[in-house]
């Protein structure tokens, strides 16, 4: 039976290439994939809880070294602005000396 499917071009090229590598007709490979997908869909759904990434943990400071002074928001923003400017100049091909 003939059917029409809309498949994104990159996906179609990948499936067509795989069919050629495996020596199959495109319709044979797609039929296998659909059949495998339907079989997999009949399996019991995975209801096990998903593992989450661990939360970040603060690293203890070595008591022998003096604590570094905390930066103010203004100092942090100045550092970030400077990094943004450097990235912009690098990407745009400018040297930063132009008016």
Class based on secondary structure composition and strand pairing:
mainly alpha
Write the H/E string, N to C.
HHH
Count helical runs. Answer: 3
**Average pLDDT figure:** 82
Provide the β-strand percentage band.
under 5%
* Overall outline: elongated
Rounded to an integer in angstroms, the radius of gyration calculated over CA atoms is 28 Å
Terminal CA distance? 69 Å
Helix content: 40-55%
Which stretches are low in confidence, meaning pLDDT under 50 for 5 or more residues running?
none
| Number of distinct beta strands | 0
For the biggest sheet, the summary is:
none
Structure description:
By secondary structure, the chain is mostly helical. The protein is built from three helices and no strands. The chain has helices at 9-21, 26-42, 73-92. The radius of gyration is 28 Å and the shape is elongated.
Key words describing this protein structure:
51% helix, 99 residues
Present the secondary structure layout:
Layout: H1 9-21, H2 26-42, H3 73-92
Kindly summarize this structure in a few lines.
The chain has 99 residues and is mainly alpha-helical. Helix content is 51%, strand content 0%.
């Amino acid at each position: 039976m003939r059917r029409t499917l809309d498949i994104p071009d990159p996906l179609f090229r990948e499936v067509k290439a795989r069919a050629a590598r495996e020596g199959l007709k495109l319709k044979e490979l797609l039929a296998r994939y659909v059949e495998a997908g339907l079989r997999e869909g009949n399996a019991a759904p995975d209801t096990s809880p998903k593992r989450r990434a661990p939360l970040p943990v603060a690293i203890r400071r070595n008591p022998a070294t003096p604590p570094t002074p905390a930066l103010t928001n203004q100092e942090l923003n100045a550092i970030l602005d400077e990094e943004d400017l450097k990235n912009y100049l690098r990407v745009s091909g400018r040297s930063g000396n132009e008016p």
